Amino acid sequence: MIQEFLIIFIINYIGVLMAEVLNFPLPGTINGMLLLFVMLYFKVIKLEKIEKASDFLLVNMTIFFMPPSVKLIESLYLLKTGIFKIIFILIFTTILTMIVTGLTVQYMIERKEKKYGKLN
Fold first, then answer.
1. Is residue 8 a contact partner of residue 53, using CB atoms and an 8 Å limit?
2. What is the pLDDT of residues 80-112, one digit of tens each?
3. Rounded CA gap, 54 and 49, in Å?
4. CB atoms within 10 A of CB 57
5. What is the DSSP secondary-structure string of 27-76?
C-alpha cells in the first residue's frame, strides 16, 4: 500500500512542478489529479496499482477538509466585508450547476433513447 501512495504522491508532485515550471493557470494539485486521470484513462497506470490507497483516501476524505475549515473560521473577519457577494455567488453557482446537470442528464437520456430505443 505504501507503493500505491508513492505512485499517487509522485504524480501529484509532478502536477505541482508542472504548475510552477510551465506557469499553468491551474493549481498544481489539480494538474496532478488531471495527470493521474489521463494516465488511468490511457492505461499507463493500472487501477489495481493504486486502488487500495485511493479507497483509503476516499474513505478518509473528511479529515482533509478540517484544516481548510479551521483556517476559514480563523479568517472569518476577512469574509464579513464581502459576505453578501460570497452568498450570491454560492447561490448562483449552485443553481447554475443544478441546471447544467439537469440538461446534461436529459441530453444523455435522449441520446441513449435514440441509440437503444425507449426503455419504458
1. yes
2. 888 888 899 999 999 999 999 999 999 999 998
3. 10
4. 15
5. -HHHHHHHHHHHHHHTTSS-GGGTHHHHHHHHHTHHHHTHHHHHHHHHTH
